[in-house]
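Show me any protein, keeping tokens residue-aligned.
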Amino acid sequence: MNLINIRFFSILFCILVAQTAGVQAARPNVLMIVVDDMNDWVGCMGGHPNASTPNIDRLAERGVLFTNAHCAAPVCNASRVATMTGLRPNSTGVYSNSVKWHQKLENVPSIPQHFKSNGYEVVGGGKVYHHMPGFNRESDWDFYFKQRFDGHFQQQLHRGEDVSSFRYPNGFPLNGIPAVKNLSRPPRNAREFDWGPLDRDVLETGDGEMIRWAAEFLKTEREKPFLLVAGIYRPHLPFYAPKKYFDRLTSDAVAVPSVLENDVADLPELGKAFANQRREDLRLVKAEGKYREMIHAYLASISYADALVGELLKALDSSPNSNETIVVFWSDHGWHFGEKEHLHKMTLWERATRIPFIVSMPGAAQLSPNCEAAIGLVDLFPTLISLCNLPSISRLDGNDISPLLSNPHIKWEVPALTTHGFGNHAVRTNRWRYIRYADGGEELYDHLNDPNEWHNLAVKSGTVKIREQLSQWLPVANAKPLSNKRIP
């Protein structure tokens, strides 16, 4: 081979190497970690003084923490469908937990489906959509890991068994409230309404089983770029966690949320109705002297979920994929513990809509500033399309927030929108929360001066202009609710 040919093939080889490197850089891996019912009680968000989340905090330090991020809907199924399809409830009609979305929205693409159809290896496990079976479109995945559960009725649902035969661990509630079993009107979710320590190690639980599988996946070198979605069930009820997370502090030492007496007095009728839903559960917990204990168990469940996140990050950091993987962390919605005289979720207030949301880009070891822009989980799909150089999808409700990853302080004027039920919406900007219900009732809160949302300014005539401005962000059209039939 002469010198000219040698030079030619050397140049061609360099071009091919460069092109290959460019393709790999253009198509990073994605590790998406989803937690359930986790509000802003994580260390990096300062939501609760007793929160201990060192692994989530570490992820926030090497990525961008969106401190004003909000769910699309304050209920599991509707939130997860909106996040994974990029379509809000008012576009799909999925407002509740009952709708098996892919049976009604057959042609709607999802994040895993779009990645899979564009050359990614797509795997998932745990709770990504709502409780199985039936909510997860299995054709979207190359492989899906179905874990066992931790001693509650979801295990029987998962196996298709009759949930009327449900039994608590050891045959009785760990929280020691016999009233849960004996009340003529027990909590609506009585089979889940429990909390307490488990005599198991972190990776011996159902969630731990899934994390072990995901960690092993991360440790192996893959032939194609991958999307791995790990759905952690905690801190969803029942608040079960390994005992060591309860032992961090005693229930008596747990701080309780600041609440305003008769905080619902200035709410419109539908606001009062949302606050009243499942109020009997809150009254039961307080009457049984278990209020601090329940909060203690929730914090222990958050720490347990954080430890699971840590296992994934440890596996990623020691893997051959560490420098080519985007990490995304989000919760489907928040959770009330007495604010607005409410327990659970399913409201349009800050406690139910604000969630931890972190995006960490490959190789980002430096401390990244927080982003205070109001963004929604519905923005995730278009953002991942941009970051991974995938083909665009013409109809998505969210916005590409990748510019905020480069500069978290740029001006961002699009607010976050949360919907709960037909025609009920909350608009959240950097300063304001504006709620309008289907019957025209309104609420307005100034977070600059009233971060607890104790004073509804919509009843004041001087707020007409700001309410009119914020109302411009409300949806013009609201899809009719899809089937609301409860799951047997």
User: Anything to note?
Assistant: Residues 3-25, 151-165 have pLDDT under 50 and may be disordered.
